[in-house]
């Protein structure tokens, strides 16, 4: 502002009438625009006010320098004194420093996209139109022919290699004819071996497909002594070390699978039924094993469709022979068996140690009972073993006197004597 006042005073001494109006107008411009507008908007308003108020063009750069801050002031300070007083040169230098050149406007116009979260379609269309106008103004388009040249230039550069397009941008060509001439000169200059290489490489190179070599067969190697063609079981050094320290490994024998995996659990096996409801309509038969060493009853997870309704919301910690505790959720079910019948809480496990057993009955339900009580029938049950005996074969071939006394059998011994003996002796 002080610079403006000094220039105005010097012009006043010379008797210039237009400077007085310029001073007042410049002060009005400075008070109106407080530095919160963008650079392009500031330059636009400055030119509008300068033309409307008939400001001398000599003071435009001075007023603009009072307005700008930051990077723009650094750019103006790097100019010569004569260039800093020229408004057109100051404006061009400031626009270049902020990358506000035609190519920058074109890239922003082409890459601008809508932001649905923070922008409406009306705002997007307005910004798109504003960016297009800035691109047109920066490219100095004044007629339909200029606009046609601009669009054709853009499409022409899209079809060129990247290096050639960068070269044309550096040359700042404004017409399609000049761009075509520069492109041909560039190709002629960079031609290799007299061959045209538009969009092609300088020399064709035959590329052979890379074949991965087959992996070589690896020879066995001892993991202890690292000698090739030796395994650990034949390593002499490892055997000597084990003989000195003593082998901690225990011999293990191969046990073939028995026909009956539950051999020995037969007396403790029983049958039962389980259900998630008290109704007898949805009973599931299960095989039960009474485990007197278990304090918690366990059930297989696949037996019933357990869900959140059957869950109690709590869990129990289980530990076996390996002493590694695991957590299992508790569910409420209904059990019908010879040792326990009623509602109970069981721990659901994905597997049980005995194959074929679906429920492991612990001491929490069975208490002191080990096997179910025997069932007594009022009617005799015939085994049927002697009913199908072969003909001529008796079950017992000898009848002793003690057996005869028990059965009260009467023996006739009259045939043992000759004569008229008719007495019948009853042996009791």
TrEMBL record:
Domain SCAN box per the UniProt entry, residue ranges: 102-190
Source species of the chain: Nothobranchius furzeri
Name of the protein in its database record: SCAN box domain-containing protein
InterPro entries: SCAN_dom (IPR003309), SCAN_sf (IPR038269)
Superkingdom of the organism of origin: Eukaryota
One of the Pfam families matching this protein, by short name: SCAN
